[in-house]
Design a protein that fits this description.
3-stranded mixed sheet, about 200 residues, 3-stranded antiparallel sheet, single chain, alpha+beta, 4 helices
Length: about 200
């Protein structure tokens, strides 16, 4: 998988806006002020850095091509009394409806992705690799194509501080080897009997 990824996916150099270090969030000094306000406000409980590569063809007669997606930063905020719904919006923000049910006192992330009957705790610093498939279904406006998904999720834990640095410094701080090329807990759902669901 890694060899194929390195050979066929040509990742373009993008200017990082967020680098996650073990004890500090590094943000670009040129970060959009509106996004900075979302990241730093006291009600924000989750910051997600999302990127990916997609194998896709626009027309039936064309060959499949890899498409590179630039990094995206998304935040989730919580306000109110009902602590049970603290992370409810994550499902609509994260890729493929990845969800967070709760966060424990040690910073462990609890999820039931991709199947509601599961419960998985991803500890601070831990990476999970989900391997899933889903058959195509529906027709016309409700059509969903077949999906083969390999998704890495890393839990970086809690952060209480950040620092803004110049873009050139941020590029230097960016990890040379991405976390998804390192060891991860693998969850393989390819043999699932649920044909039209990921899990």
């Amino acid at each position: 998988m890694e060899q194929i990824h390195k050979k066929y996916v040509k990742r373009t150099q993008c200017q990082p806006e967020l680098v996650i270090k073990p004890d500090l969030l590094l943000l670009s000094s040129e970060l959009n002020p509106e996004l900075l306000a979302k990241i730093t406000k006291s009600q924000t409980n989750t910051i997600m850095k999302i990127n990916g590569d997609y194998l896709y063809k626009e027309k039936e007669e064309e060959q499949y091509r890899w498409y590179f997606q630039q990094d995206k930063i998304k935040t989730n905020s919580y306000s109110g009394e009902n602590s049970q719904l603290k992370y409810e919006n994550i499902r609509s923000l994260a890729p493929h409806h990845f969800n967070i049910e709760a966060i424990n006192d040690e910073g462990g992330l609890i999820t039931n992705f991709p199947r509601k009957s599961l419960s998985l705790t991803l500890n601070k610093g831990e990476t999970a690799c989900f391997i899933c498939r889903r058959e195509e279904y529906g027709a016309d406006y409700s059509y969903q194509p077949a999906l083969n998904l390999v998704m890495w999720v890393k839990n970086h834990g809690f952060y209480s501080d950040y620092q803004q640095v110049k873009p050139a410094k941020l590029i230097q701080e960016q990890a040379i080897e991405p976390f998804y090329m390192k060891s991860a807990r693998e969850f393989d759902f390819r043999n699932s009997k649920l044909r039209f669901e990921l899990g």
